Amino acid sequence: MIEYRSIRVGLLGAGSVGSQVARLLLEHGDELAQRIGARIELVGIAVRDLDAKRDAELPRELLTTDADALIVASDIVIELMGGLEPARTMVLKAIASGADVVTGNKALLATHGPELYAAAEQVGAQLSYEAAVAGAIPIIRPLRESLAGDRIDRILGIVNGTTNFILDRMDSTGASLEDALATATELGYAEADPTADIGGYDAAQKAAILASIAFHTSVPVAAVHREGITSVTAQQVESARRAGFVVKLLAICERLTDPETGEEGVSARVYPALVPREHPLGAVRGANNAVFVEASAAGPLMFYGAGAGGVQTASAVLGDLVAIARRHVVGGPGTAESTHAELPMFEIGRITTRYAITLEVADEPGVLERIAHVFAEHGVSVEQLQQTVSGGSERATLVIGTHEATESALAETVASLAENPVVVSVASVLRVEGAM
Ligand code: HSE
User: Fold this and answer.
1) Which amino acids bring their CB within 6 angstroms of ligand 1?
2) Distance 4 CA to ligand 1 centre (A)
3) Taking the domains of the chain in order of start, what are their residue ranges?
């Protein structure tokens, strides 16, 4: 029997992910020791309430309310408390006391990432966070390491399972957003307060993290353009379905070159968009997540799987833990964040995209010409136009698909259309992404 040295691990938080991390560590200790070449000794689990009900049964003697003492006693700290404080203070304490840190806290990284990365780099500590984006799906390590020699052009991510469940349900059953959200709540996908998910805040935090790694640039969450799914209607989803599209909430991270100035920059944005059904992201069902990466040399890559769930996300935490523990065995400092590029953030108005616009218009001579004129005066080229007239009605429905244009030109076009006397209403505006 090999006598392994021990690496002391302190776990902060025993919620749905934390309790599964503890269970797996305790159940698979021998196997992990062989993989690492050292034994992981779970020295304690800091919790707020010693008597709270947990998803996994944990040895009572490991539970403590003294997180500070646990941090000092640990070589590696796993932070799974969530929220900004006291998580930020705890992570900084862990780094200052010489520990490496694994966290799954996307809000913390998206808000205080640069401060935490700098603190870790200063002392050569490792800060790892595979669990912070897309749950079980390996995406942070592939971006940081496997694709480190490539150049990433674009990431299109379905990184929020709750909204994907809701949009998928609307698509497959014709349900309204309200009804689909009620089902998501009943089945436990949506939180009691679903604002972070349906408002796109959760996806925006993940977009900030992905863009930072992909483009070697600090991208603050405040610089991520965010639109949630609250205004998506059953009718939009149904029209999209008939036209061969599916509505998805996308986190888009893009490296761009300004066509006029040649300036290079980065865009990170979250909004619901039409995705062709045959695109790999079009097939992402239920509460699953997927991240579609377009890299210069590697070409398109798709990462798919469970984006949440206690035991699934625990897998990502343990992967980080094993990698750090192996480094403890061989020695050497942690890998710092790469922010060498520090590209400027491009405002939403500077990006190019395509719009699908549905208009209710008066059905009379000259209307099409006047509509076409609005597009022309904003330099937006129309790619497709479909007109439907209901029998006996004096109105027509126009569905107009544009070619690529800048977001500012497209938004101004829509604003002008809304004011045009022949337009009864702008019934729907959605961007189109993932052209095949
Ligand atoms: N609330 C998130 C989602 C899971 O619905 O995907 C945690 O990031």
Assistant:
1) 160-162, 197, 202, 307-308
2) 37
3) 7-136+311-330, 140-306, 351-432
Does the domain at residues 7-136+311-330 carry the CATH identifier 3.40.50.720? yes
Residue pair 41/6 in contact (Cβ under 8 Å)? The answer is: yes
Cis-peptide into 194, omega within 30 deg: no
Rounded-to-integer distance, Cα 79 and Cα 58, Å: 17
What is 351-432's CATH number?
A: 3.30.70.260
Which residues pair with residue 345 across a beta bridge?
266
31-62 pLDDT, tens digit each = 999 999 999 999 999 999 999 999 999 999 99
Q: Which residues, at least 6 apart from 431, have a Cβ–Cβ distance to it below 8 Å?
A: 271, 273, 274, 353, 354, 355, 356
> How far is the C-alpha of 282 from the C-alpha of 170, rounded, in Å?
14
The neighbour count for residue 283, using CB atoms within 10 Å, is 14
> What CATH superfamily classification does 140-306 receive?
Dihydrodipicolinate Reductase; domain 2 (3.30.360.10)
Judge contact between 129 and 209, C-beta under 8 A.
Answer: yes
Angle between helices 367-377 and 407-419 (to 10 degrees): 150
Q: Whose CA is nearest to atom 4 of ligand 1?
A: 308
Query: What tokens appear for 131 in the block?
Result: 């669990």
Q: Does the model's pTM come out above 0.85? A: yes
Q: What is the pLDDT of residues 293-310, one digit of tens each?
A: 999 999 999 999 999 999
Catalytic hit among 53, 106, 206, 248: 206
Distance CA 99, CA 96 (A): 7
DSSP 147-162: TTTS-EEEEEEE--HH
Most ligand 1 atoms within 8 A of CB, residue of 197, 221, 288, 317 to mutate? 197
Mutation test residue for ligand 1: of 202, 205, 288, 304, the one with most atoms within 8 Å of CB? 202
| Of 261, 163, 156, 264, the residue nearest 211 (C-alpha) | 156
Q: Ligand 1 mean position to 380 CA, how many Å?
A: 37
Task: Look up residue 47 and give its two tokens.
Answer: 């919790």
> Which is it for strands 225-226 and 245-257: parallel, antiparallel or unpaired?
unpaired
Q: Is 93 a catalytic residue?
A: no
Q: Which atom of ligand 1 is nearest to the CA of 106?
A: 8
Rounded to whole angstroms, the Cα distance separating 316 from 318 reads 5
- Condensed to tens digits (0 to 9), the pLDDT of residues 334-381 reads 998 999 999 999 999 999 999 999 999 999 999 999 999 999 999 999
Nearest residue by C-alpha to atom 7 in ligand 1: 308
